[in-house]
Amino acid sequence: MSKSSGVSQDASQNSDKQTLKDAAFRLLTRREHSQFELRHKLTQKGWPDADVDELIQELATKGWQSDERFIGSFIREKLMQGQGRIKIVAQATQQRGVDRQLVEAALAEHSVDWQQRCRELHQRKFGERPPVDRKEWSKRVRYLQQRGFSGDQIFAVLGELES
């Protein structure tokens, strides 16, 4: 192998790494991404795992990618959508690959009254009137459960209507 081909190979590798970095920056400029999401999206595009892991480490070290920033943004978005704690934690940990302790700490910083959020969502969807029968009561419970509220929160809200 000649010296010139070794130099061109190094230049090609640097060019590939720059292209990978550009792809990561394009993703991060649209919205925050967790490391898990970023890794998944870049490897789906065919980038080598080792290069992706190295880049993600660099991005995190330089503060360009942060799971803490991501989870803060993610929680704000989900709260605006009317989702409950259970669903937020499940989505963040299972779908976005964020550590549960990090999610719990971020949720604690938001100091949300989950029962009040459940009450507001119920009122927005069903109004102030209590359920007329067991079928409607079950429908309301399912609706609130699917949005991530606990049984205790749901039963408290429905109990307030009946009293």
From TrEMBL:
User: Where does the record say this protein resides?
Assistant: Cytoplasm
Gene Ontology cellular component terms for the protein in this record: cytoplasm
Q: Please cite one Gene Ontology biological process associated with this protein.
A: regulation of DNA repair
| Pfam families for the chain | RecX_HTH1, RecX_HTH2, RecX_HTH3
The RecX first three-helical domain covers which part of the protein?
21-59
Q: What is its main location?
A: cytoplasm
Q: Where is the RecX second three-helical domain?
A: 66-107
Q: InterPro entries, from UniProt?
A: RecX_HTH_1st, RecX_HTH_2nd, RecX_HTH_3rd, Regulatory_RecX, WH-like_DNA-bd_sf
* Keywords (A to Z) from UniProt: Cytoplasm
Domain (RecX third three-helical) spans 115-158
What does this protein do, in the record's words? Modulates RecA activity.
PANTHER family membership: REGULATORY PROTEIN RECX FAMILY PROTEIN
Name by which UniProt lists this protein: Regulatory protein RecX
> What's the name of its gene?
recX
